[in-house]
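User: quick one, fold this
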Amino acid sequence: MLERRQLRLHRVGLMVKPKIKGAGPIIERLSRFLTERGIELVAEPIVEEMAPGCRAALVPREDLPSTIDLLIVMGGDGTMLAAARLMGGRRIPVLGVNF
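Assistant:
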């Protein structure tokens, strides 16, 4: 039987493939959505360049897993595989958005 766990989100991580066309406005919208709900967005520094209006705590990519409750990945297969490797065996959900 599967174990059911209640997921409480306090900090959501964002990992993005660099230089994705059109990602900036989506990142800014995600930032607003989370902030309005009292959830902190934690992102790698490249996000600041892609979405200047984004309100996120910036941390190096390798530090994301230790600070988040959920990881959102924007990119393709390679970015998703990199996220899976980064997360290792941690029990943190990963949501992939194919761009």
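User: anything notable?
Assistant: The longest strand covers residues 11-16.
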